[in-house]
Amino acid sequence: MIRRQIPNLITLGNLLCGVIAIAAALRGDLTRASLMICLGIFLDFFDGLAARLLNVASPLGKELDSLADVVTSGVAPGFILWNILCNGVDEKWPEFLPYTALLIPLFAAYRLAKFNIDSRQSHSFLGLPTPANALIWVGVALTPALPMDELTFIIALIAISLVTDVLMVSELPMFSLKFNFKEMSWKSNSVQYLFFIGCAAIIVASRQWYAISLIILWYIILSAITQKKHAE
Description:
two-stranded antiparallel ribbon; globular; Four Helix Bundle (Hemerythrin (Met), subunit A); mainly alpha
């Protein structure tokens, strides 16, 4: 009985991280909110791994995992962006603009429900995974040097959020980061090698936390290029 509950306890840890992240974002502590999202995503990886290693995977665990992801990778990043937009939009602009950030949890919930019934996504993804979308806003929140008070930048953030919302529920094929360890050649893992080379270049060039956001955008672009070519 105890062994069966270990993955669920990890998942509940993910959920707790998401709840703390929301509370921190509402207080304006975006650094703590971002770190809790990252910890939640880390736990999200290990709950499924623990279920497989212990051979205790269950429908309950799958549903609980999705509920936790809605909070940690949907609601929490939505409130991070909401806080940023509230501080960047002045009285001259429509009051509803910051609330566009709250579309993130709606699209995240729809994406996760769609993922649960889609057998095509067992080895790769269709649409942007919710944790990847959350990391875009983590990178933005952790970078203090960004021009958060400039309206041009704020409008760009809104546009990016709307595009990534749509990408979450799209049919865009997204490659898996898993390597083919049976054959580590360039031919077998070329997309993964290209991705990590690009990641290294982004980190070296930027040396800022927004590199996290750029890495996710690089993942989207590389998926759009390579997976479309692969489908053809």
